[in-house]
User: What shape does this take?
Amino acid sequence: QKEVEQDPGPLSVPEGAIVSLNCTYSNSAFQYFMWYRQYSRKGPELLMYTYSSGNKEDGRFTAQVDKSSKYISLFIRDSQPSDSATYLCAMRKGLTGANNLFFGTGTRLTVIP
Amino acid sequence: SQTIHQWPATLVQPVGSPLSLECTVEGTSNPNLYWYRQAAGRGLQLLFYSVGIGQISSEVPQNLSASRPQDRQFILSSKKLLLSDSGFYLCAGNRDTEAFFGQGTRLTVV
Assistant: This one.
């Protein structure tokens, strides 16, 4: 079983829709959770960063962590064509040490004008 | 802010030729550095990581090697490229918190 599972999609939605992207994980030691956005042929850029359970909102984006279910989500409100990208979830167990960052495979999102 | 510079953006190389991809870091010191390969639908595959100068850990046995000659420099190399080495290569770094990425190199081996 992979440490982090993410549906690769692709996911197509009309402009203005609410998008829900999700990841599940198996290791309860994960404490830090991140979402990255990656445009075609570019490197991933950090979108949201949360610690432990709860919600975090930034503009049209909301990150949600449910540690009891080992489930994280990214919601995009009023989706725009510029949101079309691959979204990767990532998580880590602690702040120190190397090789403790685990990524999902990414979900490819297309927002249709 | 922390920035990764990675070059070149695209590269076409014949089979059997050598490879050298370089990445440099700005805005932090003593970062952990990583080389990933990303295949469509398969996510990020960790190839190498380094916690300091001269310290390299390999995750996947393969035709590639990595070196860290300076604190903020990380190099991915190959002596003889294979067709299967084609892919999108990403350099990344982190220190304490989330990872930050370079813009990637699209390598095509022909």
Summary: Residues 30 and 93 of chain A are 4 Å apart (CA to CA). The radius of gyration of chain A is 14 Å.
